[in-house]
Structures are given as structure tokens and as C-alpha cells.
Amino acid sequence: MNLCIRQCLLSFGAVVVLAGNAWAADPANGKTVYQQNCQACHQAAGAGVPGAFPPLANNPNIAGNPQYLAEAIIKGVSGPLEVNGKQYNGAMPPMGHIDNQKIVDLVAYILSDLNGGDGAISEASVQALR
Prior knowledge:
The chain has a two-stranded antiparallel sheet.
């Protein structure tokens, strides 16, 4: 959909769904969502804090696994976790307040920019995880 048309529709409060997914993932918007919701714990570059908050960058547990990542964002994560040979045992609160499109964008940002890979999840799949 043309960006101008999309902006016009959004400004009038219209809801448009194309083939079950409003628009493709936008990693640039995902970075903003990351800065607002994740950066305080996982740090700006996604390196985390050793012993406290696991890294999201170069994390084999999430690389190529958008479903797991989206579910972790929505429902939170707690208990023992190993990332790159280091142990973590904390709790990440659920972030279900983040809307579906922003989660789609956030997942795209984490997987592409912080993990150098691909991976996307649809809004419909995010909704199904709720």
C-alpha cells in the first residue's frame, strides 16, 4: 500500500487489513519500540547485563525463532536460562501492552539488527499468542 494512502487512512482512523497482515515489519520502528521498552535492561546494543539480563544480540536462543521471541515479549520469561554459555535466572515481565504491529516491528529489529539474520512474524500470529 502506498505510504501516502496509508497515512491518510490512519489519520481518519480507518482500519485496513491486507491478507491478514496490515503492513510488513518495519525494523526502524522496531528500534524505537526497543528503545522505549527493552533497552533499559538489555542495553542499547542488546548486549544485556552479565548475570542479570541476557543479551538479545547474538543470542542463539532467539536467532531465527520469531515465534519464541514474540511469545517472550507478550508473556514474559522467568526461570533458568542459558545464553552463550552463561546462566541467567531472573524474570522479564510480560509486555502485552505493546500492540501487535509494534511487536512485529520489534521482532524484526531484534532478529535483523541485533542478530544479523532474518525472521518475521505476522500480526495474526502475534494475536494468536495473546
